[in-house]
Structures are given as structure tokens and as C-alpha cells.
Give the backbone structure.
Amino acid sequence: MNGAEDTPHTAGNQPSCEDLCQTHYARVVQLCRLLLADRHEAEEVAQEVFLKLLRERKRLTQIQSWEAWLTRVTVNACHDHRRSAWWKWWHGATSTLQDDEFPSGGLTPEEQLLTREEREQVWHRFHTLSARQREVFVLRRLEGWATEEVATFLGLTTGSVKRHLFHALRHLHHARRGQS
Amino acid sequence: MRRCLSENILLRLAAGDGSTTQRAHLEACPPCTRRYEDLAQHLTVVEQILRAPPPATRYVTVSSPRFVYRYTLPLAVAVAVLLILGWGRFWLQKPERGTTTRTANTEVLDFFDQEVVPALFATASASEPPLPVAVSDAAYVEAALVGGWPCELSAGSRTPTCESYPFPLLITER
């Protein structure tokens, strides 16, 4: 697992909630956007994650990696949210978003060169993956977890993780190439 | 392994899957190595896209199937309920209709048997039971002279209420 917060913290030099929020909020929201289809739900779940952090901060004194802890809590929260919010699925209205709602400062020049259609196509294809495939892809490829770590966390075998990742990669690769 | 690796096998290798033979071929075969690098580059770009915020119209494209899904489930449930109700009603009514018809037929037959048939054939059997025969006037005269009713004349059909019920006197069995 990579990240800036991988250095172990003792009880004395634990980062404050504010620091953790500033460091990880954007990443957690992005994780939620990837794992949930709706932007409002994503923000709601991200806030729930940081509320949980705020509540349990004093108890959690031996956390080695806050990045990994937040990722685990976020994935679990998204999982629970998907399960509990089935009624929202057909009841809630979808929202259209404006590009300026999102900051574009983090985009590299290469990303900025990408066409809008290509990004839309990739995001659309990503959200047609199954929830499990999305979780595996996010943890394995975007968060950089090892296959064994993903398997342990999601309660799968390493073979299942590889299969889910293969299907996700094939689906997204075809999306980039404009295939169906 | 002589043949070059297929795209699916390259994707499997990128996912951490695949056999050692395939990995060995990938390292030994320059065209496959090039294709694998292209694939890896494609996937890197996909990952970069997914690390960035989503474009606005993503939600518009997602909204269309969601609209369909949102109303598909209730519609399917409603149709299923209607079908079940319709079939159930038909199924329940079918034997009821037969029973009603059968009951009605039985009632009609009983009615004919008990009421209509005896009524139709009543004249035919009219001669069978003993018909009343008029008593001669002598009995009345005698009764007037002697006193009381001439019950003895109709001893065969005398009833305990003979004294207060004079009509059997008017009837004699043939």
C-alpha cells in the first residue's frame, strides 16, 4: 500500500482529525464516486467515514496507516450503503453535474489532453462493472493493494480477485478502444 | 509456446493471472512484449481517468438506464400481481361455476320430482284412493231423533274426536 500516511504513528505523534481530513478527504470522496454511482451519495458516505473517524479517533491509537484504514472504512461504508439504500435506487432522481463543480487542478497535462468523450466512455464503462469488480479494481489498481491484501479484505480467494480484475481490465480496455 | 499471446491472455497477465509458460513467452517474444506494453499504457491512462473527477455527462448517461430500471421493477411486480390475481380468480371461479350449475340442476330436478310430476299425474291416480261417498239422509234423521251423531255408521273411520268432528260421518269407505 503506498501513500503519504504509511509511516507508523505512535500515540504521541498521531495526526489530528483535521490533518487527516485535509490530507484524505478528496481521495475518500473520489473512492466513493468510484464505488457509488451517485455524486450526492458519494459525498454523504465520505462524510460518514470522517464522522466515524471523529468518533473513534481517541480509541484508535495504534493505526499504522491511516490511508489504509480510511480506505477500508470507505469501502465498507460504500458496501453497506449500497445494501441499505436499495430503495433510493429506484426512488431517487439522478442529477446532472457541471464540470466546474469539480476541481481540475489535479489533472496532469496528459489527462488534460484526453478528450471529454474518452473520459465519459471510461467512467460509463466503469460504472457498468459489477460492484465486486469495481472494488477489486479500485483496491488493486488505484489504491495499489497487493492481491492477497485485497482477497483478505474482501473475503475472496486470490484466484477470484485475479478473475474479477481480469474482467474489469478487459471491460475498461475495450471501452478505451471504443469496442462494445 | 510458439504462437503469440492473445489479448485476453495479455489482460490476464496484467491482472496478475496467467501461467509461468505464458509469462516466459511474454519475456521472450518482442512483439508480445510490445503489445503488453501498449496494453499497460492503455490501462494506465484508464487509471488516470478514474483517478480524476468524473465528467459531468457521466451522470446523464447513467440516468437513462436508471430511469428504465427504476420503473421496470415496479411494473414487473404489478404485472405479476395482476396475472396472479387474474389467474387466481379464474381458478377460484371455475369450480364455483360448476357447483352452482350442478346445485341449480339438482334443485330443478327435485322440484320436478316432488311438485311437478305428482301434479301432472295426479288425475291418473285419482281413482286409486277411496273416494268419499255421500251418506244417506236417514242417518241424519235418526241422529236427530235419537240424539248425538251417528258415529257407529262410520266405525271404520272413527276417530277419538268423532264427537266433536262430525265430518267423517259424511264419508263412508267404499
Q: What stands out?
A: Chain B touches chain A through 36 residues (CB under 8 Å). Confidence is low (pLDDT under 50) at residues 58-64 of chain B. The radius of gyration of chain B is 54 Å.
